[in-house]
Write a structure and sequence with these properties.
By secondary structure, this protein is α/β, with parallel strands linked by helices. Helices cover 37% and strands 21% of the residues. The chain has 25 helices and 30 strands. The protein has a five-stranded antiparallel sheet. Helix 8 crosses helix 9 (197-205).
Length: 673
């Protein structure tokens, strides 16, 4: 962005949002030496550095540093602070304060995290006015007094007073869409000029849970991409549950105290490191599923509603290509969540964290942005507004979206509009851009559900229809194109692909590669290990070839050569036991030096007597074939009756090659008429 454009943005910010902006390099410099959230720093900077005059700013920075040096409580200096309090009789501290109700004494008591104080009496008006003191605590500026014991003279939570939303919306009109995106990103500390257009949208997507009620968001990606930064540092209205361990009482409802947990007291509850999510209660995940679906949950005799969004962030330890080939993009979740399609279907949005670059110094801004506390309060006010029906002004959604898909897309469209067009002024092209991103984020969830749940989640071809032209536009997810395991083109002789059930009962892709060496007629198998059923199935193929080889080709020799077949379980499911037919084709292929036809998946099997066996659940098997990159399917004729249960769109993706005998299967697999 040109320096002129930067200056124009800065001038507009000063004109329309005077007193609500701060230079982010000041935050960055002080933050490096103080272990307090960004919104605490900017609360102080907004009070002391709200000026263009460099001298005033310099004095303000020194004042903030002085306050942090003298009043911010470092855990190792807690006793020094208490000593000052005792000497002076009154002392101001900045600390995280939480409050609990002491039922025995019938009074509220405060705890100071860094100061180490417990059971400090506090006036009832504070927890009644600032209810988040009762759950997790908030940062406060506290005037303490000492008269034989510690007391609280005055407590001021570090949060903005009520914001003027009309003023905020009027100011938006002075900025173009790209300029407004830059302002929002700089307000979170990022430098938009260091990111591509798509990366900016992905960073904006992280803000959706802060402006939408009951929004379920997931982002998995590499380390150091700032996944949890927004929820921990930027907004005082969100809480980050580090480590993932929690209880139903803490998160939802404490039946002993009859108090609502985190979901009733915060706008957003974020779980860091999803791999470690663990409930100490057996019904924790079930209650979470109930809440994610309806925004309410039942405890005891009560049905309790809340509006907190749920955010799940974590690390991916493998490349996306590997995950797509071997499991799913939800693999980092604990097993009870990552394979539970009912839980995962409740995710409204999956943000592709692997597309966001690892943060370096140049990714952080030195320019002006909103004071984070101001932005946080604006986002909290925006939660009261609703644009979920906005997309129907110019578009309607394709028929592949079910009710949960529609709700997810509506929530994202509403959230993006609140962030980008809070004044409600946007064009059809703007809505189309928003709708495309919303459909992509939900389709990513659905694609993974299809991998885990099969045909139940087959409808993934999301689209929207322009109401003026009736043109239908399909929206894809970028990473799906890189997950093909069966390469295009003709492979090497002896190479065969088959789709079947693995040892764990899930459908997967298996590759066979064979070699022929001079020898004495041995048949060796590698990659099967001690799996008895798989070894017997492979031996069936070799024994059948010895008995019937002449019916296939007189050129196949079994006496003067050894055959070695390598079996590869490409998706880590455990070796299949349906190996007779693919093994026979692999040995014949290498013996004749003739490769299998291109992009072929072999389905079905046979017994030692030559009886054909068809694959079970043909529709799901074909879906795995499609996902793996197969374009031709070798299928026993006895499966023809099962094709009626296969969706026409799926059938249309393949060239089906039927076979009626074992020999017929070998001929057609090798392209022999």
């Amino acid at each position: 962005m040109s320096s002129n454009n930067r200056e124009m943005i800065k001038d507009n910010l000063r004109h329309y949002y005077d007193g609500k902006i701060v230079r982010k390099d000041l935050t960055k410099k002080i933050k490096e030496g103080a272990n307090v959230p960004v919104y605490v720093l900017e609360f102080l900077l907004g009070q002391y550095c709200s000026s263009d005059d460099e001298e005033v700013i310099a004095e303000g920075v020194e004042s903030v540093k002085s306050i942090l040096a003298n009043n911010y409580v470092r855990p190792d200096e807690a006793q020094k602070m208490l000593s000052k309090l005792r000497q002076n009789g009154r002392f101001t501290v900045i600390d995280m304060v939480s409050v609990r109700l002491n039922l025995k004494k019938d009074c509220y008591e405060a705890s100071f995290t860094n100061l180490g104080l417990r059971d400090v009496p506090i006036d009832d008006s504070y927890p009644e006015t600032y209810d988040r003191l009762l759950c997790g605590g908030i940062w406060c500026i506290v005037q303490l007094e000492y008269d034989a014991c510690v007391g609280i003279y005055k407590l001021t939570p570090i949060q903005m007073p009520h914001v003027d939303m009309d003023e905020y919306k009027r100011g938006r009109a002075a900025f173009s869409k790209p300029e407004w995106i830059d302002v929002l990103l700089r307000s979170t500390g990022m430098e938009p000029d260091a990111f591509t257009e798509r990366e900016k949208w992905l960073l904006l997507t992280r803000m959706l849970p802060l402006v939408e009620n009951n929004f379920n968001f997931c982002e998995l990606g590499p380390r150091s991409t700032g996944k949890s930064h927004l929820y921990k540092e930027i907004s005082p209205n969100s809480i980050l549950v580090s480590g993932g361990q929690t209880t139903v009482a803490n998160l939802f409802y404490n039946m002993g105290r009859r108090t609502v947990g985190l979901v009733g007291l915060w706008d957003c509850v974020a779980f860091d490191e999803v791999a470690g999510i663990k409930f100490k209660d057996n019904d924790g995940i079930q209650i979470m599923k109930d809440y994610m679906a309806s925004g309410s949950f039942a405890r005891g005799k009560e049905e309790i509603a809340a509006t907190a969004s749920m955010v799940f962030v974590g690390n991916i330890n493998q490349s996306v290509d590997v995950l797509l080939r071997t499991s799913s993009l939800f693999d980092p979740f604990p097993e009870e969540m990552g394979t539970d399609t009912a839980f995962l279907d409740r995710m409204h949005c999956y943000n592709p964290g692997w597309e966001i670059p690892k943060f370096r110094p140049e990714h952080f801004t030195d320019d002006y942005g909103f004071i984070t506390d101001y932005l946080a309060e604006v986002m909290r006010e925006l939660r009261k507004e609703n644009y979920s029906d906005a997309l129907y002004q110019d578009f309607h959604l394709g028929r592949n979206l079910n009710q949960r898909d529609v709700i997810a897309v509506q929530k994202m469209v509403s959230g993006y509009i609140k962030l980008l067009y809070p004044d409600g002024r946007y064009e059809k092209e703007d809505l189309q851009e928003i709708l495309t991103y919303a459909l992509e984020m939900r389709r990513r969830v659905k694609e993974q559900l299809k991998r885990l749940g099969g045909m139940e989640f087959y409808d993934v071809n999301f689209s929207y229809i322009d109401q003026d032209t009736m043109q239908e536009t399909y929206v894809n997810v970028p990473e799906q194109g890189s997950s093909k395991l069966i390469p295009e083109g003709t492979g090497n002789p002896g190479q065969v692909y088959t789709v079947s059930c693995g040892k764990n009962g899930m459908l997967g892709l298996f590759r066979l590669e064979s070699q022929m060496l001079s020898g004495s007629g041995k048949f060796e198998k590698t990659g099967i290990g001690s799996d008895k059923a798989a070894r017997e199935s492979a031996d069936t193929a070799y024994n059948y070839l010895k008995a019937n080889g002449r019916r296939i080709s007189g050129k196949i020799s079994l006496s003067g050569v050894d055959y070695i077949v390598s079996y590869q379980d490409l998706q880590g499911l455990g070796m299949t036991r349906n190996l007779a037919l693919p093994t026979l084709i692999a040995i014949t292929s290498i013996a004749l030096g003739r490769p299998a036809v291109s992009s072929l998946a072999v389905l079905g099997d046979f017994s030692i007597g030559g009886t054909l066996m068809k694959p079970d659940d043909l529709a799901s098997v074909l879906q795995v074939c499609l996902d793996s990159g197969a374009r031709k399917i070798l299928l026993p004729i006895i499966s023809a009756a099962d094709l009626s249960a296969v969706p026409p769109e799926l059938m249309g993706s393949f060239q089906i090659i039927f076979y009626s005998t074992v020999e017929d299967a070998v001929f057609k697999a090798l392209g022999v008429e």
